[in-house]
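Extended Data, panel c. Modelled sequence:
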Amino acid sequence: MKNSREIMDILEAYDLTGSYRAAAELARCDHHTVARYVKMRAAGQHPDVRRHRDRAIDVFLPKIEELVVRSNGRIRADVVHKRITAMGFTGGERTTRRTVAEAKAQFRAGQRRVYRPWITEPGLWLQWDWGEGPQIGGRRTSLWCAWVAWSRFRVVIPVWDKTLPTITACLDATLRRIGGVPAYALTDNEKTVTTDHIAGIAVRNPEIVEVARHYGMTIRTCLPADPETKGGSEATVRIAKADLVPKDVNLLEEYRNFAALESACRTFCEEVNNRVHRETQRRPVEMLAEERQRLHPLPKQPFTVAFGTTRRVCWDSTISVEAVRYSVPHQLIDTRVWARFHGDELIVTAVGPADGHAREVARHPRGSAGTPVLDDAHYPPRENKEGDRVPKATSAEEAAFLMLGPGAASWLVEAATAGTRKVKTKMAEAVAFSKLYSTAEVDRALGTAAVTGRFAEKDLISILDYQVGLENVEVTRASETHSLQPGTSAWSRFGTIPLEHDDEDEGDTL
């Protein structure tokens, strides 16, 4: 089969020469090929269309098409091959596979849904959906993925669960991030939104209806098992998972904690919202600035009824729920938070005083009365109290002693701990010894005394004499020329020395 460029060269060669053979020599092909393409052009046929040749499988085409239609385009080619082989087909399985693929393509073309482009209007539609997030510490997370239809502005928020209070918090954060409330919000038919379907009509969850009424919007759901009715949020989920969930294709590292995932989601939103969109050829942040003029105003306070009961944060950065104290971040001391139980976990939500955003600030396992449940991350770093136990000179005598070295400081700490008497006198003796011995030797002796717990009157001078004398002793080391082995000369007269006994056997030999 010639490509379009080769066919044009053949026809151009024929127009130049007017002869099949001459054109074949110029185009480097057979003259019959030149004749075929010239005749096709004269008949008005497209040169790329191949002439159909009768095949052995053509007789079985009606049966193949019937099987494809009955299976709704899902039947396997090997099953079709067994069927038509039993009916008398003698061709190979490769021919059957090619024919079944053509039949399936024609079937899908006849069943393909045709969409009219959705012309969005600013200020009307917000869509949200859920994506599977990365695991953090072996625990699954979810990604709230929202999409403003007209401006293509995206919001991605990581969460631990998909309960109704979490949805309320995510919806409030999304609306405050876009700076207004659209007329409609479109999502899936989850139990938090749709409790049942009766005669094809979705029955709304009354709690989500109260949330929507608080913000002045209407909740809509897509058709069951038909995610194509909200393709914008589906695309947001796909893009967010591709950029945020660690996989082999993006080589992302595992997230150390939940805060790292939150930071990655904020960076992702800033990147995609400041990038020129392929469809609109504009940046979503610029279009959102125009769309805000068509959005409804936001209420000052979020819908806090779904967050649980209110609690006051005490001075020790804890709240009391069912006689159990749970810690919260210390920045929330003397503020109001909301607490609720979800299974065996307590979830604490706070509302920012400046921006009004509702966010989860703490999550604890359910505790028991009398045992507080605390998280060290909720408290500021503790000061290093070990520094208060380091000796600090307050007089000239103390400074002279501590200047001997770290051994002197260790001796003072250990001697004070052991309740040693006359500590100042012994410190003055150590300073005096530093004039007879070197400062390093005295400091070493003090360190040895501190380790061994020797704080008596003569202990320091005894240790000094021993350590100084030990340094002057010549150490004999074993080598090839000298050995510590005494030898066997003492055994040379073994057996000839008479044994001494107290009885009459004295004088006998071995």
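Residues 4-111 form one domain. This feature is highlighted in the accompanying rendering.
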